[in-house]
Amino acid sequence: MQTYLDCYPCFVRQTLQAARMAGADEAQQRDIMCQALDLLGRHSVGTILSPPEIAYRIHKMVRKQTGVNDPYYEAKQVSTQRALALYPELKQVVHQADDPLDAALRISIAGNIIDFGYSQDYDLESTLKRVLAQSFALDRRAELRAALSEADRVLYLADNTGETVFDRVLIETLDVPVSYAVKSGPVLNDAVRSDALDAGIDLAAEVIETGSDAPGTILRQCSDDFRRRFEAAELIIAKGQANYEMLSDQGARVFFLLQVKCPVIGQDIGAPAGSIVLWQGG
Amino acid sequence: MQTYLDCYPCFVRQTLQAARMAGADEAQQRDIMCQALDLLGRHSVGTILSPPEIAYRIHKMVRKQTGVNDPYYEAKQVSTQRALALYPELKQVVHQADDPLDAALRISIAGNIIDFGYSQDYDLESTLKRVLAQSFALDRRAELRAALSEADRVLYLADNTGETVFDRVLIETLDVPVSYAVKSGPVLNDAVRSDALDAGIDLAAEVIETGSDAPGTILRQCSDDFRRRFEAAELIIAKGQANYEMLSDQGARVFFLLQVKCPVIGQDIGAPAGSIVLWQGG
């Protein structure tokens, strides 16, 4: 997906959030803001990058300026703890469901609310309740079921820390082995390997890395090994908005599970903000 | 009030809104965004301007780039028509109230929802219903009543077009002559003289101008005549957030009537976003 001008207020907001998460003082926040505005200015005309590519540059700059390698470290720890506290309830929901796969898909989508690119505030309990009852605005559940029944392995592209616990519940419900791909370095609250292990993903899936520390999955920045796995994958489950922004043109083997939190993505995917979506690449 | 870094996402959003209101195409919107980012970068360190002073520069730049003198002209016309359609109901509310002045103050504050610096979308009916019943988060109604009983004239600083109709209802309820100050040139959806006349303000008050086309009331940009009136005024009613941002240090003769729509102003004034406020300068 291209970057729309409507994305710019959000980049500016994310810059400030990241600077504060990294503990920058007021003067350093101003310096960082200044650099982000300059960066955005340079990318506002000419070659247009995708939103995750611009976010990647901003977060990298903030890490460099502050010298803090993982500004969201503590927030991520809290997210995982909160999600793990819900884990028994999530398992119970799947266990008691008439359609366990449907329940687990919804749970995985519910976890996508833990998105610091969108907001630092989230309410897991009320989101879970909503998503378990909500209609899908875009619905390829039948196609995903068919693909799951034929696939030998699923490549599962992780998104945020804490959401990992919700992903684990879905993975534990699948009958197919899963490779769970996390980032190779911190960016925003995206999950890295240690975040996935904290969620216990390794008990349910093989944990692999994209080779990149960019949000979403920017294939040309990924390792050769990951790209080979990506090319060879029969079935890919891609979580969250950033993966949709990067991979919507990667064919029908990619299924996107997300909450539409942003009106710009909503416009692009064809479902309003607030929707839950299980979409398939074209 | 100083400009906080938290204001920056909002400036970027306003830039895009103004460019679109002026009918700029995609390429021109990108040029305008680029210039706004540059402008914000230059003002993010060193001498810090107030939010209305930065907004003033942005909107002036958009008008210059597009050659459109009043980008919000049509939107303002619609706002006035919608507000005038409610005028009989507003008068009825005051007429039937046990405390007509209290009702009229609330009506004037309800009209402050028509603020394109905050959002293009507003619902007058539901806002009116809410504000007529809502508790004041900051409440100097008693002090304002006392000041009104002693003043020979009120200087009333207008804010947005359409809100003008709600102001008219308050002015018609006062027993004191009013001078109603509008901007001398278009900026955002702020009222200029013709907007005030469309609302019928001239039937209730003397309409005067600030001499400036800046949002809020930036005294050093106002005409000598207006500044003399401002200095001499015994009692000033200042509407909206931008007037609060500029005039909160102008003494106890200034009463601020507004809806707190922005969390940054909320933090500064000491009342959460969503509040209604009748505050007094210090």
Can you walk me through this structure?
2 copies of one chain form a homodimer. In chain A, strands 1-7-6-5-2-3-4 form a 7-stranded mixed sheet, sandwiched between helices. The model of chain A has no long low-confidence stretch (mean pLDDT 96). Chain A has helices at 8-21, 26-42, 51-66, 73-96, 100-110, 124-133, 141-150, 163-173, 193-198, 224-232, 240-247, 263-269, and strands spanning 136-139, 154-157, 178-182, 206-209, 235-239, 254-259, 276-280. In chain A, α2 (26-42) runs antiparallel to α3 (51-66). Chain A is an alpha/beta fold. The two termini of chain A are 13 Å apart. In chain A, β5 (235-239), α11 (240-247) and β6 (254-259) form a beta-alpha-beta unit. The first copy, chain A, has 2 domains: 5-66; 73-280, Uncharacterised protein PF01937, DUF89, domain 3 (Rossmann fold). Chain A is built from 12 helices and 7 strands. At the A-B interface, α1 and α2 of A face α1 and α2 of B.
